[in-house]
Amino acid sequence: NRNIPSLLIEVLEQKLYLCYTEPKPPPATHENQAATYKVSFENMVESRRNEAFRSILVQVQSEQSCSDLHKYCSQYGEVKGMHHYSLPGSLHFVLVEFMHKSDVDHILNASSYINKKEVVPVRSPFLWFRAPKKSLQQTLNSSQPPCLMEMNRNNTPTAAELRNWMQGADSFSDQILILHRATSLNDLGSRLRFLTARQIELAVMGLFPQVTVLPFGSSVNGFGKAACDLDLVLLADRETTDTSDCRLVFHAKTLLTNGRTQVQRHMETLGDVVQLLLPGCSHVRRILQARVPIIKYHQDLTGIECDLSMTNMSAVYMSELLYILGESDWRVRPLVFAVRRWAREIGLTNPTPGRWITNFSLTLLVLFYLQQRSKHQGPVLPTLNTMISLAGSGDRRVTSDGVNCTFIRDVSRLCQHMASSARTLPNRENLETLLIGFFEFYSSFDFSTHAISLNNGMSVPKPDHSPLYIANPLERGLNVSKNVSHDETERLRIEFRNTAWMLESVALTPDKSSVTASQKKAHEVWGLTALFEAPQIAAKGRNIFYIPARKVSAPRIMDVSELFQENIEGDTSKST
Ligand code: GTP
Ligand code: MG
Q: Is 217's C-beta closer than 6 angstroms to any atom of ligand 1?
């Protein structure tokens, strides 16, 4: 029955079950936030890292190889889960999660190379599953008991599916929730990102046994979409125990006096390791002149674009801050997704780094707006100063270069504080009201004289002449939107106004006479869909209030290294 969402198929008479979920709109409901246990950022990262320790990634011929692989792996350990995905070119992969880390060691000890003379014999959790020898095939077919296994599919919707789901929604607020649920990074995406990080960790572990390679940015801050890039930081030694009593000390090379040169040299070597030795890593580019040097590469086996840096701990704490704010109210992430998607659809953001606003800056704009929403009802989010004042003794964090990143880490306690300290009633506005309010707020914001500060949740006079000034919440005195040009700031302002006007003229509810979802889909574009398609609708001369933003001259496409070179003086700890 095709209408049943989950269809169990017995595969190849081997009593292996695939759980196949037909693409369907995600539920437009939200969990009761008071009843939900809040996982701390550190626990979330630790549990994802733990999953990666217990996982291997295996390239297979096709989905049909999965049951065979399951049986093979079960000889070496207890398989906890298998997650299948495919990449363009009919490449099929299965991420196998074992119950114990030692199971991975067993199976890697029992793995080999196709032809040792022709390859760099590197050992990593990235493998492929070759056809069995005849005798082994018979053993496998006869020996294993039936198993029940859930296969996760990479079921990201197509643009057309997403549009249909949004058109078929019951309200504007539901459209925002559907967009968020359908496009956010899923479980498999997170697993693959942590396994990609693990590959680097394993590669340098012989030299640095305490090494940690941590994902940061949208892969972990809760604002990541399905195909987001992976920002990584390599921390060679996170040991914090007091070692002053040790009588034996390691012989080691002396650090160069210029720490920056040292990092650049190490990054250069790391770039060589990634390029020459690590399976799946291609298109390695070294961008060593930026304020924070990075190595960009593509991991072909997980299909992820990576930016690897060293000693960039403040960016990890920034991700933690964003994660906590996203966790503290269920409306934050859907709103950020709606604004980021809107910016992408109308061409305000661009995947190439340049003089336009980034997703990170847009996220800060939404968070700031939610902090100062107090004029209407209570604020949705606390200010950073409040978070700092609530910090307990275990929340103290200072990076090696002295950046103080101390703020409350316990999301449940933060939520309780917000609920108990509300001067007015707690904010209960729906997503529709908040999104409309966002565009109205920034339509009248004076970007020419004021800067945005999440520290006190208020705009402050601009400290310099940057066209757009968003103060870095953790490194005060730095502007995270320093890269944004005057023209692009102007365009942003015009688009805020356009959208605020447009929201007064487009339908914000589906046609009430359309009863079924397919009738709603066929109805004229409305709500979020209309917002995203505004430029096209305006170009067709339809009846909406939309003035295309002044044409900004086409950006000169710079060589990436040139861009980073230009930004050395600025706040470009990420510079994308
Ligand atoms: P997408 O990759 O676009 O999905 O979003 P992202 O949040 O991952 O942004 P990006 O990859 O550009 O940056 C990764 C992280 O680096 C951000 O989440 C921030 O924590 C940090 N970051 C980015 N840009 C800046 C910046 O200009 N200044 C500082 N201090 N940190 C930044
Ligand atoms: Mg990123």
A: yes
Which residue has tokens 């007015």?
424
- The answer to whether 569 and 295 have CB atoms below 8 angstroms apart is no
Bridge partner list, 459? 452
Q: Counting ligands in written order, which one lies closest to the CA of residue 314? A: 1
Q: Kind and range of the H or E element at 152?
A: strand 151-152
550-575: pLDDT as tens digits: 444 444 444 444 444 444 334 444 43
Query: What is the C-alpha separation between 188 and 85, in angstroms, rounded?
Result: 9
Whole-structure pTM value: 0.86
Reported ipTM: the value is 0.96
- State the Cα–Cα distance between residues 180 and 522, nearest whole angstrom: 22
Cβ of residue 218 lying under 6 Å from some atom of ligand 1: yes
Q: Are 147 and 70 in contact (CB under 8 A)?
A: yes
Sole residue written with tokens 């910016």: 343
- Alpha-carbon span 231 to 219, nearest angstrom: 7
32 phi, psi to nearest 5 deg: -70, 110
Position 205: which residue type? Answer: M
> What is residue 435's three-state secondary structure?
helix
Q: What is the DSSP string of 100-150?
A: SHHHHHHHHHT---S-TTTS-----SEEE-PPPPHHHHHHHHHHPPP----
What contacts 24+ positions apart, CB below 8 Å, involve 446-450?
Answer: 447/489, 447/492, 447/493
Cα–Cα distance for residue pair 13/138, rounded to 1 Å: 15
Residue 471 φ then ψ, to 5°: -65, 135
Q: How far apart are CA 62 and CA 531, in angstroms?
A: 40
With a 6 A CB cut-off, is 321 part of the ligand 1 pocket?
A: no
